[in-house]
Amino acid sequence: MLTIKVFHLLLAISWFAGLFYLPRILVNLGQVLGNSDQNPSGNQLTDQSEAVSRQLVKMAKSLLKFMNLLMVGTIILGVELTYLYYQQNPELLRYGWFHIKIFMLICLVGYQHYCQYLLKNLENKTLIKSQTWLRVFNEIPVFLLLIILSMVIIQPKSAEQYVTIFGAVLFLIIFGALVLIILRTDKRHS
Predict the structure, then answer these.
(1) What's the confidence (pLDDT) of residue 132?
(2) Domain count, the chain
(3) What is the mean pLDDT of residues 146-168?
(4) What is the per-residue pLDDT for 160?
(5) CA–CA dist 185, 179 (Å, integer)
(6) What pLDDT, on a 0 to 100 scale, did the predictor assign at position 44?
(7) pTM of the full predicted structure?
(8) What is the 3-state secondary structure (H, E, C) of the chain?
(9) Hey, how many other C-beta atoms are within 10 angstroms of the C-beta on 74?
(10) Mean pLDDT in the chain?
(11) Contact 73/10 with Cβ under 8 angstroms?
């Protein structure tokens, strides 16, 4: 069981590396497309911007293929671990922390698929979200990871423990939003 757990964690960590990096590529693609609006010739990209855009799309597509394999491997080994732990403790499926972890996993899969949707739009030179939105979107996996780790490591049993965990996550979200606002305001004044 420990070997399966090691490989599950290895795949999950690798998948998260992709989940952290892919949205950053989308932010960079958004910047390239956003800068084309300032181009005197209209929405046409310069040759250099076009080359950068093509390279970023190529990188994102390669990363996405690899991430899909990591995601599937993580889920398969996670199901196997759940089955093995369920054999030892049939109460596992009744724990609230386990349900939250599974819900966060579903959110991660949805997040990755939405990244793929955004990539297709950006590949077609369609900027459907603002650069600021993409930057905020880029941070979502951090909070999902924080919740998943909190659930698995702490395995809260009382309402007070859940409130503490989600309060800490909410605090980090608010703190991060304030930092973004301050940085954006500072950037406008310089």
Answers:
(1) 84
(2) 1
(3) 91
(4) 92
(5) 10
(6) 63
(7) 0.85
(8) CHHHHHHHHHHHHHHHHHHHHHHHHHHHHHHHHHHHCCCCCCCCCCHHHHHHHHHHHHHHHHHHHHHHHHHHHHHHHHHHHHHHHHHHCHHHHHCHHHHHHHHHHHHHHHHHHHHHHHHHHHHCCCCCCCHHHHHHHCCHHHHHHHHHHHHHHHCCCCHHHHHHHHHHHHHHHHHHHHHHHHHHHHHHHC
(9) 23
(10) 90
(11) no
Identify the burial level of 56 via C-beta atoms within 10 angstroms of its C-beta, where 0-12 means exposed, 13-18 middle and 19 or more buried.
buried
Structure tokens, 69: 């394999």
Which range of residues forms the domain containing residue 147?
2-189
pLDDT at 39 over 80: no
Mean pLDDT value across residues 35-55: 71
CB 77 within 8 A of CB 69: no
Report the share of the chain in percent with pLDDT over 70: 92
Alpha-carbon distance 178 to 122, whole Å? 28
Question: Nearest CA to 133 among 31, 52, 64?
Answer: 31
Q: Mean pLDDT over residues 7-17, rounded?
A: 97
Task: Report d(CA 40, CA 45) in Å as an integer.
Answer: 10
Q: Which tokens hold the place of 168?
A: 């800490």
Query: For residues 169 and 154, what is the distance between their CA atoms, to the nearest angstrom?
Result: 14
Q: Based on C-alpha coordinates, what's the Rg of the chain? A: 20
Cα gap 113→92, rounded to integer Å? 29
Mean pLDDT, residues 79-108 taken together: 94
